[in-house]
Amino acid sequence: MIPSLYRGKTKLDSITWKYNARINAAIKGKRIFRQYNRAVFEPLIQHYGVRTPYIDLVDNVWVALWFALHQAKAVSINTHEYVYYYDSKEEYSYIILMVSDLMYCDTMCLGVSLQESEIRRSYRWP
Known about the structure:
Order of helices and strands: HHHHEEEEH
Largest sheet: 2 strands, antiparallel
Structural class: alpha+beta
Strand order of the largest sheet: 1-2
Radius of gyration: 17 Å
Strand content: 15-25%
Distance between the termini: 32 Å
Number of strands: 4
């Protein structure tokens, strides 16, 4: 599985450097972005069509199926980029089921830094 930022690319170091520079400039340039931790900001902008080094996971099979059956298209109009979805023309679609056991997470879970005590408070353990 290849994140959207790297699909079809070969110079991954260069792409990563440029991506980090653009993200840092966006965070510095807009006061509203400074209030978010980067680990929250980047997955958020991914949902608005920005290509990121993340793989998007969902916890609902119906949501995964919807995204598997649709394609996104980005259109630039007057320096604004708009993303819209349409029915996929592909003959087949796939969803990949992944199993995760949060009980075994230490300080990094799903890209967001969490301490084990925070995880235990958030989830009921058997």
